[in-house]
């Protein structure tokens, strides 16, 4: 068993842990990710919900995403840090924000999604696959 993945918000009021390895990791350039990130994209690690435990009570903000699916973004109500999101189209998965990891190096990006929305100053490089929207079949 590898070490659990742990993370927290900026003020530390909310902490989480996932016992499972990430199922996928990537950067998202959609507008909602940009607006909630403070930069040109946000970076996520998908883990199974069953592996996930949390201490503290994050606030959730639910909104219809570019994909048309309902996405709920969870954040700390005290410090405003983005923590993770869920997507109605992918039940049972939690999308942890790489920015909230205790160990940032756990994040190993595999792809860019919503690359068509990327800012001119934050374009995907050539090192990873980049999908205009989501990869086919997702
Ligand atoms: Zn906080
Ligand atoms: Zn996004």
What share of residues are in beta strands?
35-45%
Mean pLDDT over the full residue set? 95
Report the end-to-end length measured between terminal Cα atoms. 29 Å
**SSE sequence, one letter per element:** EEEHEEEEEEE
Question: Given the C-alpha coordinates, what overall shape results?
Answer: globular
The radius of gyration computed from the alpha-carbon positions, rounded to a whole number of angstroms, is 14 Å
Number of DSSP-assigned strands: 10
Structural overview:
By secondary structure, this protein is mainly beta. Helix content is about 5%, strand content about 35%. The protein has one helix and ten strands, in the order E-E-E-H-E-E-E-E-E-E-E. The chain has one helix at about 30-35; strands at about 5-10, 15-20, 25-30, 40-50, 50-55, 60-65, 70-75, 80-85, 95, 110-115. Strands 6-7-8-9-4-3-10 form a seven-stranded mixed sheet. A hairpin with a 5-residue loop joins strand 8 (about 80-85) and strand 9 (about 95). The longest helix is centred in the N-terminal third of the chain and has 7 residues, at about 30-35. The model has no long low-confidence stretch (mean pLDDT about 95). It binds zinc ion (2 copies). One zinc ion binds near residues 33 and 114.
Comma- or semicolon-separated keywords:
138 residues; mainly beta; 1 helix; globular; binds zinc ion
Secondary structure layout:
Layout: E1 5-8, E2 15-18, E3 24-28, H1 31-37, E4 42-48, E5 52-55, E6 59-64, E7 70-75, E8 82-87, E9 93-97, E10 111-113
Parallel strand pairs: 3-10
Antiparallel strand pairs: 1-2, 2-5, 3-4, 4-9, 6-7, 7-8, 8-9
The protein binds zinc ion (2 copies).
Residues 28, 30, 32-33, 114 line the site of one zinc ion.
């Amino acid at each position: 068993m590898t070490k659990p993945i742990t993370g927290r918000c900026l003020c530390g009021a909310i902490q989480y842990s996932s016992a499972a390895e990430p199922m996928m990791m990537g950067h998202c350039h959609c507008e909602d990710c940009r607006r909630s990130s403070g930069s040109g994209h946000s970076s996520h690690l998908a883990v199974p919900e069953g592996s996930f435990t949390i201490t503290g009570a994050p606030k959730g903000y639910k909104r219809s995403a570019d994909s048309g699916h309902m996405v709920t973004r969870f954040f700390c109500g005290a410090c405003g840090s983005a923590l993770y999101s869920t997507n109605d189209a992918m039940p049972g998965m939690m999308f942890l924000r790489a920015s909230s990891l205790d160990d940032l190096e756990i994040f190993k990006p595999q792809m860019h999604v919503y690359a068509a929305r990327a800012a001119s100053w934050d374009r995907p490089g050539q090192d990873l696959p980049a999908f205009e929207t989501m990869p086919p079949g997702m």
